Amino acid sequence: MKILVINCGSSSIKYKLYDARTENELAGGLIERIGEQSSHTVHKCGGAAFERDNRIADYEMGIGQILDLLTTCGDPPPIERAEEIAGAGHRVVHGGERFADSVRIDARVLDAIDHCADLAPLHNPANLAGIRATMKLLRTKPQVAVFDTAFFQTMPPAAYTYAVPHAWYDQYRVRRYGFHGTSHRFVAAQAAALLGKAKPNLITLHLGNGGSMTCIRDGAAVDQTMGLTPLEGLVMGTRCGDIDPAIVFYMLGKGLSPDAVRRALEKESGLLGVSGVSRDLRDVMSAAQEGNARAALAVEVFAHRARKYVGAFLAELGTCDAVVFTGGIGENSPPMRARILDGLAPLGIDLDAQRNDARGSEPFAITADGSRIAAWVIPTNEELMIARDTVRLIA
Ligand code: ADP
After folding, report:
1. Which fold has domain 2-147?
2. Interval 351-384: pLDDT, tens
3. What is the dihedral angle through the alpha carbons of 282, 33, 206, 305, rounded to the nearest 10 degrees?
4. What is the model's pLDDT at position 254?
5. Any bridge partners for residue 44, and if so which?
6. 197-377 has which CATH code?
Protein backbone atom coordinates (compact mmCIF):
# COMPACT_ATOMS: atom_id res chain seq x y z
CA MET A 1 0.00 0.00 0.00
CA LYS A 2 1.47 3.39 -1.03
CA ILE A 3 0.75 6.42 1.15
CA LEU A 4 1.45 10.02 0.17
CA VAL A 5 2.29 12.41 3.02
CA ILE A 6 1.79 16.11 2.31
CA ASN A 7 2.82 19.16 4.32
CA CYS A 8 1.73 22.44 2.75
CA GLY A 9 3.35 25.64 4.06
CA SER A 10 2.41 29.20 3.13
CA SER A 11 4.35 28.94 -0.17
CA SER A 12 5.74 25.42 -0.19
CA ILE A 13 4.79 21.74 -0.31
CA LYS A 14 6.90 19.02 1.33
CA TYR A 15 5.95 15.47 0.44
CA LYS A 16 6.96 11.85 0.86
CA LEU A 17 5.69 8.62 -0.62
CA TYR A 18 5.82 5.58 1.68
CA ASP A 19 5.42 1.88 1.22
CA ALA A 20 3.11 1.30 4.19
CA ARG A 21 4.08 -2.35 4.64
CA THR A 22 7.86 -1.84 4.90
CA GLU A 23 7.63 1.83 6.03
CA ASN A 24 10.30 2.54 3.38
CA GLU A 25 10.46 6.04 1.97
CA LEU A 26 10.06 5.55 -1.80
CA ALA A 27 10.40 9.19 -2.88
CA GLY A 28 10.03 12.69 -1.54
CA GLY A 29 10.73 16.29 -2.20
CA LEU A 30 10.01 19.95 -1.75
CA ILE A 31 8.37 22.58 -3.95
CA GLU A 32 9.24 26.14 -2.95
CA ARG A 33 8.06 29.60 -3.98
CA ILE A 34 4.57 28.51 -5.00
CA GLY A 35 2.70 31.44 -6.55
CA GLU A 36 5.86 33.35 -7.44
CA GLN A 37 7.26 33.94 -10.94
CA SER A 38 9.45 30.85 -10.78
CA SER A 39 9.04 27.95 -8.37
CA HIS A 40 11.73 25.44 -7.53
CA THR A 41 11.23 21.71 -7.02
CA VAL A 42 13.70 19.15 -5.75
CA HIS A 43 12.46 15.57 -6.04
CA LYS A 44 14.41 12.62 -4.65
CA CYS A 45 13.90 9.02 -5.56
CA GLY A 46 16.12 5.94 -5.36
CA GLY A 47 19.27 7.92 -4.53
CA ALA A 48 18.83 10.32 -7.47
CA ALA A 49 17.72 13.96 -7.32
CA PHE A 50 15.59 15.67 -9.96
CA GLU A 51 15.16 19.45 -10.11
CA ARG A 52 12.58 21.58 -11.88
CA ASP A 53 12.31 25.33 -12.20
CA ASN A 54 8.87 26.18 -13.49
CA ARG A 55 5.99 28.33 -12.37
CA ILE A 56 3.70 26.54 -9.91
CA ALA A 57 0.82 28.98 -9.57
CA ASP A 58 -1.09 27.21 -6.79
CA TYR A 59 -1.36 24.05 -4.66
CA GLU A 60 -3.34 22.18 -7.31
CA MET A 61 -0.53 22.66 -9.83
CA GLY A 62 1.94 21.69 -7.10
CA ILE A 63 0.18 18.44 -6.23
CA GLY A 64 -0.19 17.77 -9.98
CA GLN A 65 3.55 18.17 -10.41
CA ILE A 66 4.22 15.83 -7.46
CA LEU A 67 2.02 13.11 -9.01
CA ASP A 68 3.82 13.61 -12.33
CA LEU A 69 7.28 13.32 -10.71
CA LEU A 70 6.23 10.22 -8.73
CA THR A 71 5.10 8.47 -11.91
CA THR A 72 7.97 9.53 -14.21
CA CYS A 73 11.20 9.93 -12.19
CA GLY A 74 13.31 6.97 -11.11
CA ASP A 75 14.35 3.73 -12.66
CA PRO A 76 11.66 2.50 -12.37
CA PRO A 77 9.45 5.21 -10.81
CA PRO A 78 7.91 4.11 -7.48
CA ILE A 79 4.42 4.13 -9.01
CA GLU A 80 3.19 3.89 -12.59
CA ARG A 81 -0.14 5.63 -12.02
CA ALA A 82 -1.44 8.03 -9.37
CA GLU A 83 -4.27 5.56 -8.69
CA GLU A 84 -1.74 3.29 -6.96
CA ILE A 85 -1.66 5.75 -4.05
CA ALA A 86 -4.02 4.27 -1.42
CA GLY A 87 -4.49 7.48 0.51
CA ALA A 88 -2.94 10.78 1.54
CA GLY A 89 -2.05 12.08 5.01
CA HIS A 90 -1.92 15.84 5.51
CA ARG A 91 -0.18 17.77 8.24
CA VAL A 92 -2.61 20.33 9.64
CA VAL A 93 -1.24 22.82 12.14
CA HIS A 94 -4.30 23.79 14.19
CA GLY A 95 -7.14 21.51 15.18
CA GLY A 96 -8.37 23.72 18.04
CA GLU A 97 -10.32 21.82 20.71
CA ARG A 98 -12.18 19.82 18.10
CA PHE A 99 -9.53 17.21 17.29
CA ALA A 100 -7.82 14.99 19.88
CA ASP A 101 -6.63 12.54 17.22
CA SER A 102 -6.02 12.36 13.50
CA VAL A 103 -9.18 12.04 11.44
CA ARG A 104 -10.44 10.95 8.04
CA ILE A 105 -11.35 14.05 6.08
CA ASP A 106 -14.93 14.80 5.06
CA ALA A 107 -16.85 18.03 4.48
CA ARG A 108 -17.34 18.58 8.24
CA VAL A 109 -13.63 18.17 8.92
CA LEU A 110 -12.82 20.68 6.16
CA ASP A 111 -15.21 23.17 7.81
CA ALA A 112 -13.62 22.57 11.21
CA ILE A 113 -10.10 23.17 9.85
CA ASP A 114 -11.38 26.35 8.24
CA HIS A 115 -12.96 27.37 11.57
CA CYS A 116 -9.47 27.15 13.18
CA ALA A 117 -7.91 29.37 10.48
CA ASP A 118 -7.92 32.52 12.62
CA LEU A 119 -5.88 30.63 15.25
CA ALA A 120 -3.22 29.73 12.60
CA PRO A 121 -3.71 32.25 9.79
CA LEU A 122 -0.45 31.39 7.99
CA HIS A 123 -0.82 27.63 8.17
CA ASN A 124 -4.41 26.34 8.19
CA PRO A 125 -5.47 28.04 4.91
CA ALA A 126 -2.40 26.54 3.17
CA ASN A 127 -3.08 23.11 4.73
CA LEU A 128 -6.68 23.35 3.58
CA ALA A 129 -5.72 24.39 0.04
CA GLY A 130 -3.38 21.39 -0.16
CA ILE A 131 -6.11 19.01 1.04
CA ARG A 132 -8.65 20.41 -1.46
CA ALA A 133 -6.14 20.11 -4.32
CA THR A 134 -5.29 16.52 -3.38
CA MET A 135 -8.96 15.59 -3.05
CA LYS A 136 -9.52 16.93 -6.55
CA LEU A 137 -6.58 15.09 -8.10
CA LEU A 138 -6.87 11.81 -6.16
CA ARG A 139 -10.65 11.87 -6.33
CA THR A 140 -11.60 8.49 -4.92
CA LYS A 141 -8.74 8.13 -2.43
CA PRO A 142 -9.26 8.69 1.31
CA GLN A 143 -7.49 11.65 2.93
CA VAL A 144 -6.45 11.97 6.56
CA ALA A 145 -5.67 15.10 8.60
CA VAL A 146 -2.97 14.86 11.28
CA PHE A 147 -3.00 17.84 13.64
CA ASP A 148 0.00 19.42 15.38
CA THR A 149 -2.26 20.24 18.33
CA ALA A 150 -4.16 16.94 18.78
CA PHE A 151 -1.65 15.22 21.10
CA PHE A 152 -2.09 18.00 23.68
CA GLN A 153 -5.84 17.78 24.07
CA THR A 154 -5.20 15.63 27.17
CA MET A 155 -3.78 18.68 29.02
CA PRO A 156 -5.82 19.51 32.13
CA PRO A 157 -7.53 22.93 32.42
CA ALA A 158 -4.92 24.05 34.97
CA ALA A 159 -2.22 23.70 32.30
CA TYR A 160 -4.11 25.10 29.32
CA THR A 161 -5.92 28.00 30.96
CA TYR A 162 -4.34 31.45 30.78
CA ALA A 163 -5.08 33.67 33.75
CA VAL A 164 -6.84 36.25 31.58
CA PRO A 165 -10.55 37.23 31.55
CA HIS A 166 -12.37 33.94 31.06
CA ALA A 167 -14.52 35.49 28.33
CA TRP A 168 -11.40 35.45 26.11
CA TYR A 169 -11.54 31.67 26.27
CA ASP A 170 -15.32 31.37 26.00
CA GLN A 171 -15.65 33.79 23.11
CA TYR A 172 -12.29 33.70 21.33
CA ARG A 173 -10.82 30.28 22.23
CA VAL A 174 -7.77 31.85 23.92
CA ARG A 175 -5.96 28.96 25.70
CA ARG A 176 -2.80 26.89 25.44
CA TYR A 177 -2.96 24.39 22.57
CA GLY A 178 0.65 23.17 22.16
CA PHE A 179 2.34 22.36 18.85
CA HIS A 180 4.78 19.88 17.24
CA GLY A 181 2.44 17.14 18.52
CA THR A 182 3.31 14.69 15.76
CA SER A 183 6.99 14.81 16.67
CA HIS A 184 6.43 14.63 20.43
CA ARG A 185 4.03 11.72 19.95
CA PHE A 186 6.48 9.87 17.69
CA VAL A 187 9.44 10.11 20.08
CA ALA A 188 7.24 9.43 23.13
CA ALA A 189 6.09 6.15 21.54
CA GLN A 190 9.71 5.23 20.78
CA ALA A 191 10.75 6.06 24.33
CA ALA A 192 7.92 3.93 25.73
CA ALA A 193 9.14 1.00 23.63
CA LEU A 194 12.76 1.54 24.72
CA LEU A 195 11.74 1.73 28.37
CA GLY A 196 9.48 -1.31 28.04
CA LYS A 197 6.75 0.69 29.75
CA ALA A 198 3.41 1.32 28.06
CA LYS A 199 2.65 4.63 29.80
CA PRO A 200 5.84 6.34 30.94
CA ASN A 201 6.40 9.78 32.43
CA LEU A 202 8.52 11.75 29.96
CA ILE A 203 9.87 15.17 29.15
CA THR A 204 10.33 15.52 25.39
CA LEU A 205 12.33 18.36 23.82
CA HIS A 206 11.81 19.05 20.11
CA LEU A 207 14.56 21.55 19.29
CA GLY A 208 14.70 22.63 15.65
CA ASN A 209 14.21 26.06 14.09
CA GLY A 210 11.04 26.03 16.11
CA GLY A 211 11.30 24.43 19.53
CA SER A 212 8.93 23.11 22.15
CA MET A 213 8.84 20.80 25.15
CA THR A 214 6.11 18.46 26.33
CA CYS A 215 5.45 17.10 29.80
CA ILE A 216 3.96 13.60 29.56
CA ARG A 217 2.37 11.72 32.48
CA ASP A 218 1.28 8.09 32.08
CA GLY A 219 1.83 8.41 28.34
CA ALA A 220 -0.46 11.46 27.92
CA ALA A 221 0.55 15.09 27.43
CA VAL A 222 -0.16 17.19 30.53
CA ASP A 223 1.73 20.38 29.65
CA GLN A 224 3.52 22.06 26.74
CA THR A 225 5.68 25.11 26.27
CA MET A 226 3.88 26.46 23.18
CA GLY A 227 0.59 28.24 23.71
CA LEU A 228 -2.19 29.81 21.68
CA THR A 229 0.43 30.01 18.93
CA PRO A 230 3.94 28.57 18.47
CA LEU A 231 5.46 31.85 19.69
CA GLU A 232 5.42 30.97 23.40
CA GLY A 233 7.92 28.90 25.34
CA LEU A 234 11.48 28.13 24.35
CA VAL A 235 13.95 30.44 22.63
CA MET A 236 13.84 29.50 18.92
CA GLY A 237 15.69 30.39 15.73
CA THR A 238 13.89 33.70 15.26
CA ARG A 239 10.98 33.49 17.76
CA CYS A 240 11.27 35.01 21.20
CA GLY A 241 9.44 32.35 23.23
CA ASP A 242 8.35 33.52 26.71
CA ILE A 243 8.50 37.24 27.31
CA ASP A 244 6.74 39.65 29.60
CA PRO A 245 3.58 40.55 27.59
CA ALA A 246 4.02 44.14 28.78
CA ILE A 247 7.09 44.38 26.50
CA VAL A 248 4.59 44.58 23.63
CA PHE A 249 2.82 47.67 25.03
CA TYR A 250 6.14 49.20 26.05
CA MET A 251 7.51 48.90 22.50
CA LEU A 252 4.21 50.16 21.03
CA GLY A 253 4.68 53.15 23.30
CA LYS A 254 8.15 53.65 21.81
CA GLY A 255 6.53 54.13 18.39
CA LEU A 256 6.74 50.67 16.84
CA SER A 257 3.64 49.64 14.90
CA PRO A 258 1.77 46.46 15.94
CA ASP A 259 3.01 44.82 12.73
CA ALA A 260 6.62 45.76 13.47
CA VAL A 261 6.37 44.34 17.01
CA ARG A 262 4.86 41.12 15.70
CA ARG A 263 7.55 40.81 13.01
CA ALA A 264 10.28 41.45 15.58
CA LEU A 265 8.97 38.77 17.97
CA GLU A 266 8.36 36.18 15.24
CA LYS A 267 11.18 36.80 12.78
CA GLU A 268 13.87 38.92 14.39
CA SER A 269 14.16 37.49 17.91
CA GLY A 270 15.41 34.21 19.35
CA LEU A 271 18.95 33.08 18.49
CA LEU A 272 19.05 35.61 15.63
CA GLY A 273 17.84 38.53 17.72
CA VAL A 274 20.18 37.99 20.64
CA SER A 275 23.27 37.01 18.63
CA GLY A 276 22.81 39.29 15.63
CA VAL A 277 24.61 36.52 13.74
CA SER A 278 22.14 33.89 12.52
CA ARG A 279 19.07 31.88 13.41
CA ASP A 280 21.10 28.72 12.85
CA LEU A 281 22.62 27.33 16.04
CA ARG A 282 25.71 26.05 14.19
CA ASP A 283 26.59 29.60 13.05
CA VAL A 284 25.82 31.05 16.45
CA MET A 285 27.99 28.46 18.22
CA SER A 286 30.95 28.99 15.86
CA ALA A 287 30.69 32.76 16.33
CA ALA A 288 30.63 32.20 20.10
CA GLN A 289 33.74 30.05 19.86
CA GLU A 290 35.46 32.82 17.92
CA GLY A 291 34.79 35.19 20.80
CA ASN A 292 31.53 36.88 19.77
CA ALA A 293 30.02 37.75 23.16
CA ARG A 294 26.44 38.21 21.93
CA ALA A 295 26.55 34.83 20.18
CA ALA A 296 27.77 33.27 23.43
CA LEU A 297 24.91 35.01 25.27
CA ALA A 298 22.36 33.68 22.76
CA VAL A 299 23.56 30.11 23.38
CA GLU A 300 23.28 30.64 27.15
CA VAL A 301 19.81 32.18 26.94
CA PHE A 302 18.65 29.28 24.77
CA ALA A 303 19.98 26.64 27.17
CA HIS A 304 18.77 28.51 30.27
CA ARG A 305 15.17 28.60 29.04
CA ALA A 306 15.13 24.90 28.17
CA ARG A 307 16.77 23.92 31.48
CA LYS A 308 14.19 25.98 33.36
CA TYR A 309 11.38 24.01 31.70
CA VAL A 310 13.09 20.68 32.44
CA GLY A 311 12.95 21.71 36.10
CA ALA A 312 9.35 22.90 35.85
CA PHE A 313 8.20 19.69 34.18
CA LEU A 314 10.11 17.52 36.68
CA ALA A 315 8.20 19.35 39.42
CA GLU A 316 4.91 18.71 37.60
CA LEU A 317 5.67 15.01 37.19
CA GLY A 318 7.22 14.14 40.53
CA THR A 319 8.82 11.07 38.99
CA CYS A 320 10.14 10.94 35.46
CA ASP A 321 11.31 7.93 33.42
CA ALA A 322 13.18 9.73 30.66
CA VAL A 323 14.09 13.02 29.02
CA VAL A 324 14.11 12.83 25.22
CA PHE A 325 15.92 15.14 22.78
CA THR A 326 14.87 15.40 19.13
CA GLY A 327 14.80 17.85 16.18
CA GLY A 328 17.81 19.31 14.32
CA ILE A 329 19.40 20.73 17.46
CA GLY A 330 18.24 18.02 19.87
CA GLU A 331 19.59 15.27 17.61
CA ASN A 332 22.80 16.93 16.44
CA SER A 333 24.17 19.26 19.07
CA PRO A 334 25.95 17.48 21.96
CA PRO A 335 27.16 20.82 23.40
CA MET A 336 23.62 22.23 23.57
CA ARG A 337 22.29 19.03 25.17
CA ALA A 338 25.11 19.20 27.72
CA ARG A 339 24.35 22.85 28.51
CA ILE A 340 20.65 22.15 28.98
CA LEU A 341 21.27 19.22 31.36
CA ASP A 342 24.19 20.93 33.10
CA GLY A 343 23.87 20.75 36.88
CA LEU A 344 20.81 18.48 36.85
CA ALA A 345 22.60 15.45 38.37
CA PRO A 346 21.17 16.22 41.84
CA LEU A 347 17.70 16.02 40.24
CA GLY A 348 18.50 12.56 38.86
CA ILE A 349 19.79 13.27 35.34
CA ASP A 350 23.40 12.12 35.24
CA LEU A 351 24.81 12.96 31.79
CA ASP A 352 27.60 10.77 30.39
CA ALA A 353 29.84 13.12 28.36
CA GLN A 354 31.15 10.39 26.09
CA ARG A 355 27.73 8.97 25.28
CA ASN A 356 26.43 12.49 24.70
CA ASP A 357 29.09 13.02 22.00
CA ALA A 358 27.75 10.11 19.94
CA ARG A 359 25.77 10.53 16.72
CA GLY A 360 23.42 8.20 14.98
CA SER A 361 20.21 7.70 13.12
CA GLU A 362 19.00 5.27 15.81
CA PRO A 363 18.01 6.25 19.37
CA PHE A 364 20.84 6.31 21.92
CA ALA A 365 21.12 7.01 25.65
CA ILE A 366 23.25 9.94 26.83
CA THR A 367 23.05 9.34 30.59
CA ALA A 368 25.25 7.11 32.75
CA ASP A 369 23.99 3.61 33.53
CA GLY A 370 23.03 4.44 37.12
CA SER A 371 21.18 7.67 36.23
CA ARG A 372 17.80 7.73 38.02
CA ILE A 373 16.24 9.45 35.00
CA ALA A 374 17.46 8.33 31.57
CA ALA A 375 18.09 10.86 28.80
CA TRP A 376 17.83 9.75 25.18
CA VAL A 377 18.39 11.16 21.74
CA ILE A 378 15.57 9.87 19.53
CA PRO A 379 15.48 11.03 15.89
CA THR A 380 12.02 12.24 15.01
CA ASN A 381 10.07 11.28 11.90
CA GLU A 382 6.89 13.29 11.62
CA GLU A 383 6.15 12.15 8.07
CA LEU A 384 6.29 8.48 9.08
CA MET A 385 3.93 9.21 11.97
CA ILE A 386 1.50 10.85 9.50
CA ALA A 387 1.81 7.83 7.17
CA ARG A 388 1.08 5.44 10.08
CA ASP A 389 -1.99 7.45 11.14
CA THR A 390 -3.19 7.47 7.54
CA VAL A 391 -2.90 3.69 7.28
CA ARG A 392 -4.68 3.27 10.63
CA LEU A 393 -7.58 5.49 9.59
CA ILE A 394 -8.12 4.29 6.05
CA ALA A 395 -7.81 0.58 6.85
P1 ADP B 1 12.95 22.67 11.38
O2 ADP B 1 12.36 23.09 12.68
O3 ADP B 1 12.95 23.78 10.35
O4 ADP B 1 12.47 21.33 10.87
P5 ADP B 1 15.41 21.30 12.06
O6 ADP B 1 14.74 20.32 12.96
O7 ADP B 1 16.05 20.79 10.82
O8 ADP B 1 14.49 22.53 11.69
O9 ADP B 1 16.53 22.04 12.94
C10 ADP B 1 17.28 23.11 12.45
C11 ADP B 1 18.26 23.51 13.52
O12 ADP B 1 19.12 22.39 13.80
C13 ADP B 1 19.18 24.67 13.13
O14 ADP B 1 19.24 25.61 14.20
C15 ADP B 1 20.52 24.00 12.97
O16 ADP B 1 21.55 24.84 13.36
C17 ADP B 1 20.42 22.86 13.95
N18 ADP B 1 21.42 21.85 13.65
C19 ADP B 1 21.45 20.94 12.64
N20 ADP B 1 22.59 20.23 12.68
C21 ADP B 1 23.33 20.69 13.73
C22 ADP B 1 24.59 20.39 14.30
N23 ADP B 1 25.35 19.44 13.79
N24 ADP B 1 24.99 21.08 15.38
C25 ADP B 1 24.21 22.04 15.91
N26 ADP B 1 23.01 22.39 15.42
C27 ADP B 1 22.57 21.72 14.35
Report:
1. Nucleotidyltransferase; domain 5 (3.30.420)
2. 999 999 998 899 999 999 999 999 999 999 999 9
3. 60
4. 98
5. 28, 49
6. 3.30.420.40
What is the pLDDT, as a whole number, of residue 360?
Answer: 87
Residues near 41 by Cβ (< 8 Å), separated by ≥ 6? 29, 30, 31, 32, 50, 51, 52, 53, 54, 56, 65, 69
Is 19 designated active site? no
Q: What angle do CA 88, 10, 32 make, to 5 degrees?
A: 80
CB 215 within 8 A of CB 311: no
281 lines ligand 1 (CB under 6 A): yes
pLDDT recorded at residue 271: 98
Report the C-alpha gap between 360 and 393 in whole angstroms.
32
Q: Indicate the top mutation candidate among 333, 378, 383 to test ligand 1's pocket, ranked by most ligand atoms within 8 A of CB.
A: 333
User: Is residue 11 over pLDDT 90?
Assistant: yes
CA distances for 370 relative to 220, 301, 318, 349, 362, angstroms? 26, 30, 19, 10, 22
Alpha helices in 165-212 (DSSP H): 166-172, 181-195
Beta bridge partners of 41: 31, 52
With CA atoms as reference, report the closest residue to 387 among 127, 13, 11, 25: 25
216 lines ligand 1 (CB under 6 A): no
Beta bridge partners of 53: 40
Instruction: Give domain limits for the chain.
Output: 2-147, 197-377
Phi, psi of 219 (to 5 degrees): 80, -5
Question: Which residue in 19, 148, 242, 244 is the catalytic one?
Answer: 148
Taking only the tens place, the pLDDT of each residue in 147-162 is: 999 999 999 999 999 9
